[in-house]
Known about the structure:
- With 430 residues, this protein is an alpha/beta fold.
- It has a domain at 83-105 and 220-400: Rossmann fold (3-Layer(aba) Sandwich), CATH 3.40.50.
- 43% of the residues lie in helices and 16% in strands.
- The strands form three sheets. A six-stranded mixed β-sheet has the order 4-5-13-10-11-12, with helices on both faces. A five-stranded parallel β-sheet has the order 9-6-7-8-14, with helices on both faces.
- The longest helix is centred in the last third of the chain and has 15 residues, at 334-348.
Amino acid sequence: MKYYSLNHNSKPCSFADAVKKGLAPDRGLYFPEKIPILPKKFFSEIQDHSIPEMAFKVIKPFIGKQINNNKLLEIVKETLDFKFPVVEITNSIAALELFQGPTLAFKDVGARFMARTLGYLKKDSKEKITVMVATSGDTGGAVANGFLGVEGVKVVILYPKGKVSEIQEKQLTTLGQNITALEVDGVFDDCQEMVKNAFLDASLSSVQLTSANSINIGRWLPQMFYYFIAYRALKNKNKKLVFSVPSGNFGNICAGIMSQQMGLPISHFVASTNVNDTVPRYLKTANYEPLPTKQTVSNAMDVGNPSNFVRIQKIFNNDIYRMKKNFSGYSYTDDQTKKALKKIFSKKKYIADPHGAVGYLGLQEYISTQKDDIYGVFLETAHPVKFKDTVEKTLNLKVPIPNRLKETLSKKKVSIPIRDYNELRSYLLD
């Protein structure tokens, strides 16, 4: 499988090179030359395979011979060594819990897969790689944990000062070793722009850079596993499946749409956002108009200009009418999000996080427009403890802190403050 830049000004490259580079030389995101279609037999027999075996068959066509089958299966097994429960909230709505991994966030899967893949691809090389990642909350912690101690890899995390939760900040600033956190005086979009600028900076040619944001195919593609796992669990419902995805940078929902294009029987997707509503507005007006990022209680979605939307546009050949057939977009305020937290809790004493609550709202709104018999799934992308203050004040209860977090919270934060790109460049060259 070859990968090409969506800016179309760089040469196609292999899976290995795309992972190592992160971003194409022309600043475009890499995209596979074709989307493989899985045979119908795969779906009819999907419950006969273990989750790792199923995931291996999903990802293998994108990698080809660059990783041998035994090693790839090993990587997949290590990536997916925790559970992904589907928790029923009502007779027709369920939450897919993606926060059972080591950092309590859905990004654990992509980060673990990429870390193990990159470690394997450079195993015979003495080259040093610097992995850069911008985070609006959970990505940084997941990447830090996934790459901790990986030989020959230095991780640099950029996060917006004062705009991530205390737990999120501790997860990316307390590990040490090969992990460095840069605290940016700005918003997530500023962090993301700095990362992109670094890839184009000729003065950094001596530093081999790659990204661990979902712009990197090694982080992005494994997110397809969630949808296959959920389908495997819900296949016997014999209803049209609709997934509502809390969306910020649009990597997760894009992976879901890729799954659908591979043949996975998903009827529709809902992109549920907070007031950073660039994509929902686009679906209504056909005008793509990013606005400055606004801070919300669902901070991991505080993204004004989502990088991965260009991949969704490519999947549908920029045909907005095809897009609308496959996914809808809705946005919600903090007040609506808090009311949703209360509503979900009232139904089954289920404690959602603010991002999941936004997903629930989008799912409800879409279902209300349909006459078909639908089973809806909203993604719970992070453990509610990561948004402890908001959840506890809204629901008037205490959220227990998992044991694996207690040690992290007791550690001292270590970060380097930076104000602009020049300071980032100086750090990378130091």
